[in-house]
Design brief:
The complex is a heterodimer of chains A (536) and B (512). Chain A is built from 20 helices and 2 strands. In chain A, 71% of the residues lie in helices and 3% in strands. A two-stranded antiparallel ribbon of chain B has the order 1-2. Chain B has a two-stranded antiparallel sheet with strand order 3-4. The chains are: A mainly alpha (536), B mainly alpha (512).
């Protein structure tokens, strides 16, 4: 099927446009509000589901042995500036594309008001300004997929920024009590990072030129002076072009550009000390948006570093590798300790993301094929598990309207199914063998040990902290005496089952068969590892 | 003598748009006396529209192949034509805002339109001035009529104050400019830009030789002073630091439709003059790029001005609560961004200024249109009046959000296109100095997001203040808002046409 990626990106965008059109036509057609809401929900489910189905089709058709891009769509967009519409999937992006299709669809289901407990005092977010919410959600989904598929740097940047607007409104309008603060903080942090990134992108563009072996040309074959083509840039970078350019501020060109790009991506991951937007954004966002934030948005940072910093500027990456590893370790240890101190369940899970994304940084910094694959797998498993965790928090919040860990107790007796699901998610997240978190963390440690022994030992010890905050949380919330206030707490309903069971099943499946993902990514990552270790 | 007269007469044909505008000014003053009664507002607007349409038609049939008119006083070329289209669009948009404006009373509408046409004529002349004297005269034409328009609401104290401030600052700025022009004449014996170019180049060569011998810096200094002084008059029109002080007060006091016009038209005209002044007088096309022919470090001067202008504009805007003042400081910041393109001193730099101005027209006029709607419907110019607007007038609120995000420079809106080109122009030049300027610009974009978002937050995230019923928006305004949004989205995604037009206009400057 041709144009598979383009359809996957534009299906949600088309759904979004359809909803906007419906709202505009509403006065003309004299539709009641309920009908518009239902129709919007239908559009959202169909377009998001279609996009997910297309990413599954990608999975089936993707050839993991090839290292080049597949499912390529390539056309000239703005000729004056050599900007192209260029999308494709390779080993670095395919896992993230599938993940974002999956998580987007899960988030769409989680945005439906099915089986919602009606409580006039606490109106459910899924019943407020429905068309607006869904239109923004779909816009966000399309932009996310676009970021992972784009192979033209300008296109990448446009999708990257396009994500900010819907996210701002989704947190700011449908979020919790401190939503405005959280939304603006998220926006400012990310924009500050991305304007620097824009300069770096333009800098790379003007730094690029045809060299023997790497002729630059547009999709239609017109030879050009400079290029935004990320694959061509990567080839130029691997041949050392960017190291030879005029230095900036007394530092080497490629290192300055590397840092500007890295800061932009590190904010997204989020890497300590740029992580402070994350707890606010996660806690205030409505459940499906937290799911997308943790499940997909954080991965963009890791993906960007792999695709851009590692791919295009390998020499500078070698220079900064120790720094990445140290910051990765800080993320792991610091995040885990902060989790111990959290009283709010959602905040605890938000900080656990900081800790778990540290494994991605640590694994990438080692450059070995096992560690790189481990880092990629960690992004995948964290995407699945953290999405599940936020859904689980959402279940409780919908019923109790608060998330204080100490405010519960003995819930296991009252809601056994919920307890089992939460236990599964917690254990998968802390890396229990047999569940997916274990495989990826193990691969990161195993692949990194030869390079950064001390850091691995420190990080591995932090796993004990991880276990303790999860176990302690289980103890406080589910064991002991039942809090009388929650005598009538309802167990998970069908909408929640629809989202939680698939994710739970996947976290077990990938615990036993991580090869399903690794087969897709190994080829490209081995090649990348080869390039990165070239100087060793 | 007779040959000169013949040349002047021959020039008239190519001067058709300006002639149409001049006739239009007179015609509107007459029609102002003729049209009475109920349909007056509509008829006058139609008359104004017809004059604009005739001017546009005249502009379309006038060839824009480069040539000098009136013995070099006026230059006809692609750059001038680009700006004339820009000004026509600005005037048409302003008329669209005036139609339902309560600030311009029916009795004085004809007067307003006639004066607006006169400003338009002045701006057109600024864009095509080939002689510094002509620059000064056309700039004064714009200024003098603008003083009257800024103080158009005679009964309003703030409007009178605005007018007075504008007069005083304007008088000082144009006086300084005239002084600078006299220096130029003293140094080179001519005010014709086309003749100045080679003379400045030769002069700089002499200065360079003298300098290596250890002297003659006084002459060089005189040229630097002359350039700075000419910049004063131009910078005043652009509202760039340190000639920006009039801007917030005049924006606040002037009738909103004219504020809208002021924020785009004269600013663009200032850039038209600056592009021509530096492009023809101080640079030369060589090897596909531009070379500064003078020993005057004007790109550095302009670059420093750019950095100060945008930083000051943005930082001051952070604390504003009156929307007109906030947008005034924002427009100062945008003058700073635009100066970055001039500072790049390259073909792409000049292009980026043109593209940014074209885009800026839609987003800034759109923003002021919303301010005009709100001032008329709720009487509030304060940010608190915008609370919960998305429930009272959803379409207007969404349009305003789009304009503000475009002003911030977020893709896929056209503001991003403009900013991208400005940054690209700087980074194309490379080197730490240009990169540092680009970084200042980038940080400023992030700062500006904060105050633009404050408005968005009030409109979208906060509940309506007090008894906020739905706000009726006239159909003309709705169409303008929709059109602006469509233009911003289109030029954000497909800016090839705009880029091509700017390339042709810029190349015309260096071919002629």
């Amino acid at each position: 099927m041709p144009h598979l990626l383009t359809y996957a990106i534009f299906a949600p965008l088309a759904g979004s446009a359809a909803i906007v059109l419906l709202v505009l036509l509403r006065p003309l057609l004299r539709l009641p509000k309920e009908q518009v809401d239902s129709a919007s929900r239908l559009f959202a489910l169909v377009s998001s589901g279609l996009s997910f189905a297309l990413t599954l089709l990608l999975w089936a058709q993707f050839d993991g042995a090839r290292t080049g891009p597949q499912f390529v769509d390539h056309a000239v967009w703005i000729r004056g500036f050599n900007i192209e519409y260029f999308v494709g999937a390779d080993g670095i992006s395919i896992a993230m594309i599938i993940l974002s299709g999956l998580i987007s669809f899960i988030a769409t289901i989680a945005s439906m008001p099915w089986w919602v407990h009606d409580d006039p005092q606490h109106p459910h977010f899924s019943k407020r300004m429905v068309p607006g919410y869904l239109a923004l959600l779909l816009l966000l989904q399309g932009a996310m997929l676009g970021v992972f598929c784009a192979l033209d740097f300008f296109l990448f940047y446009v999708f990257w920024e396009l994500m900010l607007l819907p996210m701002y409104f989704l947190i700011g309008i449908w979020g919790g009590p401190r939503k405005e603060y959280a939304a603006i903080k998220f926006f400012l942090y990310t924009l500050a990072g991305s304007v620097l990134m824009l300069l770096a992108v333009i800098g790379l563009y003007y730094g690029s030129r045809s060299i023997p072996g790497v002729p630059l040309a547009l999709a239609d074959g017109t030879p050009v002076q400079h290029t935004f083509n990320m694959l061509a840039l990567a080839q130029l970078g691997q041949r050392g072009l960017f190291q030879t350019l005029t230095s900036l501020f007394g530092y080497r060109f490629d290192r300055v550009v590397w840092l500007a790009l890295f800061i932009g991506f590190a904010i997204k991951i989020p890497m300590f000390p740029f992580h402070t937007w994350l707890p606010d954004a996660h806690v205030e966002a409505p459940t499906p948006i937290s799911v997308i934030l943790a499940g997909v948005l954080l991965k963009m940072g890791g993906y960007g570093i792999l695709r851009v910093n590692f791919g295009i500027l390998p020499e500078a990456t070698r220079f900064f590798a120790d720094m990445i590893a140290v910051f990765g370790t800080i993320n792991i240890v610091y995040g885990a300790f902060v989790c111990l101190a959290q009283k709010d369940l959602k905040k605890l899970i938000a900080y656990s993301s900081v800790s778990h994304m540290g494994f991605v940084l640590l694994g990438m910094a080692a450059f070995t094929p096992q560690a790189l694959s481990g880092a990629m797998l960690q992004m995948w498993t964290h995407g699945i598990v953290s999405a599940m965790l936020f859904l689980i928090v959402g279940v409780l919040y919908d019923r109790a309207h608060h998330r204080e860990i100490e405010g519960f107790g003995g819930l296991a007796a009252r809601v056994p199914e919920y307890t089992a699901l939460m236990g599964l998610a917690f254990f998968a997240s802390m890396g229990l063998p047999g569940l997916c978190g274990f495989v990826s963390e193990f691969m990161v440690f195993y692949g990194t040990f030869a390079v950064y022994q001390t850091l691995v030992i420190v990080s591995a010890s932090a796993v004990i902290i991880t276990a303790s905050y999860y176990l302690w949380t289980i103890q406080r919330m589910f064991l002991g005496k039942l809090n009388e206030k929650y005598r009538d707490l309802a167990d998970v309903n069908w909408r929640e089952r629809l989202t939680l069971y698939p994710l739970g099943a996947l976290s077990i499946f990938f615990g036993f068969y991580p090869q399903a993902v690794l087969d897709l990514v190994n080829g490209s990552l081995q090649q990348m590892s080869h390039v990165l270790r070239g100087a060793f | 003598m007779e040959a000169a007269i013949a040349r002047n007469l021959g020039s008239l044909g190519a001067f058709l748009p300006e002639i149409v505008l001049s006739a239009g000014v007179l015609a509107l003053f007459l029609l102002d006396l003729v049209f009475r009664g109920e349909g007056r507002r509509g008829r006058l607007t139609w008359a104004f529209g017809i004059v604009l349409a005739l001017a546009a038609a005249a502009l379309a049939v006038t060839p824009s192949s480069p040539r000098g008119l009136f013995n070099g006083m006026v230059v006809q070329d692609g750059l001038g034509t680009f700006f004339k289209w820009l000004f026509l669009a600005t005037a048409a948009y302003t008329a669209g805002i005036v139609v339902h404006s309560k600030e311009i009373s029916r009795a004085r509408l004809g007067e307003f339109y006639a004066l607006l046409l006169a400003v338009l004529l002045g701006m057109d002349l600024m864009a095509v001035s080939g002689d510094l004297l002509m620059v000064y005269l056309s700039l004064e034409l714009v200024s003098l009529v603008s003083y009257a328009l800024a103080g158009f609401r005679k009964d309003d104290v703030r409007s009178a104050e605005a007018s007075l401030k504008y007069v005083i600052y304007g008088g000082v700025a144009s006086g300084i400019m005239l002084f600078g022009i006299s220096y130029m004449y003293g140094l080179f014996g001519t005010t014709d830009l086309a003749l100045l170019g080679p003379k400045i180049k030769a002069f700089s060569g002499e200065v360079f030789v003298a300098q290596t011998l250890g002297g003659a810096t006084a002459a060089q200094l005189a040229l630097v002073v002359a350039v700075m002084f000419v910049l004063a008059g131009v910078g005043y029109k652009m509202a760039s630091v340190p000639w920006h002080m009039w801007c917030p007060d005049v924006y606040e006091g002037a009738p909103t439709p004219f504020t809208a016009f002021l924020s785009v038209g004269p600013k663009a005209a200032g850039f038209a003059v600056a592009l021509r002044f530096f492009g023809v007088g101080f640079t030369e096309a060589a090897g596909g790029g531009l070379v500064n022919t003078a020993t005057v470090p004007w790109p550095a001067i302009v670059g420093i001005l750019a950095a100060i202008t945008m930083t000051l504009g943005n930082i001051t805007a952070l604390g504003q609560t009156n929307l007109k003042r906030l947008l005034a400081y924002s427009s100062i910041a945008h003058a700073g961004y635009l100066l970055m393109g001039l500072a790049a001193a390259s073909i792409l730099g000049f292009q980026s200024v043109l593209v940014y101005l074209a885009v800026y027209l839609f987003m800034n006029l759109g923003a002021f249109l919303v301010v005009a709607i709100m001032a008329a419907r709720t009487g509030g110019e304060d940010i608190s009046a915008y609370r919960g607007l998305v429930r009272r007038a959803p379409f207007t609120a969404i349009a305003f959000t789009v304009f503000l995000f475009s002003l911030t420079g977020l893709p896929p809106l056209a503001g991003f296109t403009g900013k991208y080109l400005l940054f690209a122009a700087l980074l194309q030049q490379g080197g730490s100095w240009y990169v540092a300027l680009a970084i200042v610009g980038a940080i400023n974009s992030a700062i500006s997001l904060y105050y633009y978002l404050r408005i968005v937050k009030a409109m979208v995230l906060e509940p309506p203040a007090g008894a906020g019923g739905p706000i009726e928006v006239p159909r003309t305004y709705g169409a303008l808002l929709a059109g602006s949004m469509a233009a911003l989205l289109f030029f954000g995604l497909f800016w090839s046409p705009l880029y091509g037009a700017s390339l042709r206009a810029t190349q015309a400057l260096f071919r002629g």
